[in-house]
Every structure is written in C-alpha cells, then in structure tokens.
From TrEMBL:
UniProt cross-references to Gene3D superfamilies, sorted A to Z: Acyl-CoA dehydrogenase/oxidase, N-terminal domain, Butyryl-CoA Dehydrogenase, subunit A, domain 2, Butyryl-CoA Dehydrogenase, subunit A, domain 3
Species this protein is from: Pseudonocardia sediminis
Keywords from the UniProt entry: FAD, Flavoprotein, Oxidoreductase
Residue span, Acyl-CoA dehydrogenase/oxidase N-terminal domain: 26-132
SUPFAM superfamilies: Acyl-CoA dehydrogenase C-terminal domain-like, Acyl-CoA dehydrogenase NM domain-like
Protein name: Glutaryl-CoA dehydrogenase
Family recorded in the similarity comment: Belongs to the acyl-CoA dehydrogenase family.
Length: 397
C-alpha cells in the first residue's frame, strides 16, 4: 500500500486559463528549471530546516548553480533574465518555500539591485560579480525599530569625516543581516538631511547583528536587529546615485511587483495540495472531492488563483515593456498577498488536522505568506499608495 498524501507539495501545473501558452522558450526553461529544483530538492528537505529555524545553505547555494541570481541585471555574471522570467522564478521558488524565495529576494532584488540601480560603474564591477555567484551575500537595511511603514523618517545618521563616513543608528528586521558580507545601509546625511545608501562590508567595527528569535513565518531565513555604532565607511562605499530617499524608493518599487509573484507561488502550493488531498481523502465513504461544498470551495480557490495569475502575467508584460508603474505593482502586491492569505486558510482547513502538520506542505505556506503580506509595504500602505493615485489626495505623508 502506498503512503497517502506523499505528493501534496508537488506541482499540479495549475493553469486554467492557459496563460503558460504565452511563455517564450527562455521563460519556459527558467520556469521548468526552478520547478524541478523545487519538487526534487527543496520539498524533501525544507520542512526540517523550517522546523528547526536553520538556514538551508545547500539549497541557497543551488540558486547560483541554477543561474537565477541577480534577476534582470545584465552583465557582471548576473542572470540577466527578462522581467517576466524574474517573476516566474520567484513564483516557483515560493511555491516551494518562502524562506528560500525571500533569501533570493533580499540578495538579488534588494541588495544587488541597490548596487545595480544606484551604484557607479566601478562599484558595480567591484561587488556584483561575487554577488552573482553568491560568494558574497547581500542584505538591505532600511527598516528601523521606530520606522517601518514610515521608513522615510529613518533616524540612522551618516556624518562625513574626511574621506569616510561615520554611521550611527539601529535597524530592524534585516534579512541576512547576521550572515551577509555586504549590507546596504540607508542613512541620513547629517549635513544635507538627505537619505543616502552605503555598502557596509562586514565584519565592520561597530556593526553588530542579533537574530530575531521566536519568528513563526519564514523560519528557514533569519532577520536581524542591527546596531551601528560609529561604523566607518569609506566614501567609495557610498552608492554614487543614491542621493535621496527617492532612490531607495526606486529599488523598492522594483521589488513590489515581485512580491505579487511570490504570493502567487504560495497560493498555488496551497491550492494544488488541497485538490490532491480532496481526491485522496475519503470521508463518509466517498472522496472529499465528491461533496458539492468541497467542489465549490476548490472552484472559488481556483477562481481567485486564476485572477492572481492574470495580475502577474500583466505586470510581467508591463515590466517587459518598461511600463510597470509603482502604483500598478502596488495594487498587484495588495491584491495577491491578501488573496493568497484567503486561499491558504481554505487549503489549511480542507486538509483538516493534517493541515497543521508541516509534512503536508500547507501550513508552512500559510505561515510564510504573513511575512510577505507585511514586508516591502503592508496591504494598508499599498492601498494608501493606490488610493493617492486614484483620488489625487494623499492620506499619508
Ligand atoms: C519577515 C520580515 C522580513 C523583513 N525584511 C526586511 C529587510 O530585509 N530589510 C528591511 O529594511 N526591512 C525588512 N522588513 C521590514 C518590513 O518592511 C516592515 O515590517 C514593514 O514595512 C512594516 O513595518 P512595521 O513592521 O514597523 O509595521 P508598522 O509600520 O508599525 O505597521 C503596523 C500596522 O499599522 C498599519 N499602518 C501603518 N501606517 C498606517 C497608516 N498611515 N494608516 C493606516 N494603517 C497604517 C500597517 O499597515 C500595519 O498593519 C521585514 C519584515 C519582516 C516581517
């Protein structure tokens, strides 16, 4: 007799509206490479790491071998993917696991992109090649203990002192902050009051990172509280084109759309597992899938999931055409993370008691979507950004 429910985490290839027919060969190849990696390498191992809150370095390292590090950055050994491929890769990684996907999101989407978008040519040449191979790991330090949604009011300071800068302040929730080699620190110039970006190379005197304990989302990835006490950074480590908070905002706008793809990956994992389970699980002498209420719930999940897929395809097309605005990406992030939460709650419930066991590959996604819902702008903040766009009135400063 075969053990029941052993394949719940694996892809069903859910694509009700045939959006995959539109993939180019390059997009299809990237997508399939990551799908195989997830089904054959990530799923068998990840629950143990998530359970113990340990970092799965062997899986992190495989991202470099799969040539998917660096998103759409061209040159410097980076993946140089089309924007739609970037979305597909992040979606599929998150269908496997949120910690793994967020590891890549922080390293590529935030740290490498800060250098690619705000660095000089010399700075790109200096740091990006080693980051593309994951020989150097990146982090992005914007959030502070007192400034999350209003990070524009950050209090970390940078004071010019001859050929270098002296940085002081505290950062919170910094992914990879305790293990990164290169930390992009956003700090306010005490003279001009503008927010500037610095590459802090660790270990650095005055830089301490403490992993935040007790986290129940993205457990196989660590976030840190960071203290910067008179950390001295040479001027050549100040990102040349990070001259105000707007430049930090450009980096974040770029990753906002990717969060919509991440949410789609989590929701797909939940839906696929629920469909498989409903067919396998028998109650009252019949498979769960034969009951009308169960079918209705699965179809509602599919309708929501298909809507998320269409959102993603369109933001991918717009990004390919260079037309993805921060507000469109914001609406996609808001819609997809909140819809994914609903789908994952339904999936968890449809698995009954098995739904709260890690081995069935639903509850991990159910917990992980909470972090994605919050980071890089909460649902409420995305709503306010879009609200400002449609009304012309800002409900926040
Ligand atoms: C797992 C994880 C990883 C992260 N990784 C990083 C990282 O690598 N680097 C980094 O810099 N940061 C990171 N962050 C920080 C993240 O971006 C912030 O948590 C996020 O911006 C929200 O800030 P906050 O947690 O301080 O919540 P707050 O800003 O305090 O918000 C609390 C609540 O109030 C609501 N709210 C806030 N302002 C308003 C308003 N004007 N009107 C109505 N409601 C409002 C919010 O929507 C939310 O519901 C990470 C966070 C998490 C949880």
């Amino acid at each position: 007799m075969t053990t029941p429910y052993t394949h719940l985490g694996e892809a069903l290839g859910t694509d009700f509206f045939s959006v995959q027919d539109e993939f180019s060969d390059e997009q299809w190849q990237r997508f399939m490479d990551v799908r195989k990696f997830v089904d054959h390498e990530v799923l068998p191992d990840i629950n143990e790491y998530w359970d113990k809150a340990e970092l799965p370095w062997h899986l992190f390292k495989r991202l470099g071998e799969l040539n998917i590090v660096g998103d759409d950055i061209v040159g410097y050994g980076a993946a140089g993917m089309s924007p739609l491929s970037v979305g597909l890769v992040h979606m599929e990684l998150h269908r496997g696991d949120g910690s793994l996907g967020t590891f890549l999101g922080v390293h590529s989407g935030l740290a490498m992109q800060s250098i690619a978008m705000c660095g000089s040519e010399e700075q790109k040449q200096r740091w990006l090649p080693a980051m593309s191979t994951l020989d150097k790991l990146g982090a992005f330090a914007l959030t502070e203990p007192e400034h999350g949604s209003d990070s524009i009011a950050l209090e970390t300071t940078a004071t010019r002192d001859g050929d270098s800068w002296v940085i002081n302040g505290s950062k919170r929730w910094i992914g990879n902050g305790s293990v990164a080699d290169l930390v992009i620190v956003w700090a306010r110039d005490t003279e001009s009051q503008e927010v500037l970006g610095f590459v802090v190379e660790t270990p650095a005197e005055g830089y301490t990172a403490t992993v935040i304990p007790g986290k129940v989302s993205l457990r196989a990835l660590w976030q840190a509280d960071i203290e910067l006490r008179d950390v001295r950074v040479p001027d050549e480590n100040r990102l040349e084109f990070a001259r105000s908070f707007k430049d930090c905002g450009r980096v974040l706008a770029n990753t906002r759309g990717i969060c919509a793809w991440m949410a789609l990956g989590h929701a797909t994992a939940g839906y696929d597992a629920a469909v498989r389970y409903a067919k396998e699980r028998t109650q009252f002498g019949k498979p769960l899938a034969s009951f009308q209420i169960v079918q209705q719930r699965l179809v509602k999940m599919l309708a929501d999931l298909t809507g998320m897929q269409l959102y993603c395809m369109q933001i991918g097309r717009l990004a390919d055409a260079g037309k993805l605005s921060p507000t469109i990406a914001g609406l996609a992030k808001m819609n997809n993370t909140s819809t994914a939460r609903t789908i994952l709650s339904e999936a968890r419930d449809l698995l009954g008691g098995n739904g709260i066991l890690l081995e069935h590959h639903v509850v991990r996604h159910w917990a992980d979507i909470e972090a994605i819902h919050t980071f890089e702008g909460t649902e409420t903040i995305q709503t306010l950004i879009v609200g400002r766009d449609v009304t012309g009135i800002s409900a926040f400063t």
